Amino acid sequence: MVRVTTPRIAPLDPDALGPEAQKVMGNFKGETPLNIFRTLAQHPDLLRRWLVFANHVLGKSSLAPRPRELAILRIGWLCRSAYEWGQHVEIGRDCGLTDADIQALKAGPEAGHWGEEEQWLLRAVDELYLDAHISDRTWNALAARWSTQQLMDLVFTVGQYNLVSMALNSFGVQPEPGLPAMAD
């Protein structure tokens, strides 16, 4: 599968961010905003509205950090999103994922690495990716462990990162230097 290796939509230079984009992204305290934000700043209204949802999924959902990052990394892997993979390997490590966890994500729920709950979680991600639907078997297994809000947040997390992966891959957003690569 061929990927875009140069930006189709160039990230704005930090000095070129308009007042609306600067307001939306807040104060980066001397740090350069990430390529995803500088690219989406080409459409400030979209960036502003998307950030509300993205902030819920990443920081305010009912999913604990570990299952959230397992879901994000799995959908990033399935979508072959080098940008999401690299960013979330780092975030996942901060949430306690090990290198063995990260490697096993590439093989998915049948890797032989996962406990029962994480197998069901990863099955749900794979089913959403392949069929846009969680099977009854997988749903019931997760519903026996998780609240309704957690189930809803899982679906929206996978959907959010599927969407973002499509955008990043299509726009040609390049990973920041030094991020983990998406090696097969």
Q: Quick check: average pLDDT?
A: 93
Shape: globular
- What is the annotated CATH architecture of the largest domain? Up-down Bundle
Could you state the order of secondary-structure elements as H and E?
A: HHHHHHHHH
End-to-end Cα distance, whole Å, is 12 Å
Percent strand: under 5%
Query: Helix/strand/pairing class, anyone?
Result: mainly alpha
Helix tally? 9
* Rg from alpha-carbon coordinates: 17 Å
The number of distinct structural domains comes to 2
Helix content class: 55-70%
Low-confidence stretches: none
Counting DSSP E segments of at least 2 residues, the number of strands comes to: 0
The CATH fourth-level homologous superfamily of the largest domain: AhpD-like
CATH domain topology of the largest domain: AhpD-like
CATH top level assignment of the largest domain? Mainly Alpha
**Major β-sheet annotation:** none
General description of the model:
This protein has helices spanning 19-25, 35-40, 44-60, 65-78, 82-94, 99-107, 116-131, 136-143, 148-171. The longest helix is centred in the C-terminal third of the chain and has 24 residues, at 148-171. It is an all-alpha fold and 184 residues long. It is 62% helix and 0% strand. The chain folds into 2 domains: 14-58, no CATH class; 63-171, Up-down Bundle (AhpD-like), CATH 1.20.1290.10. The protein contains 9 helices and no strands.
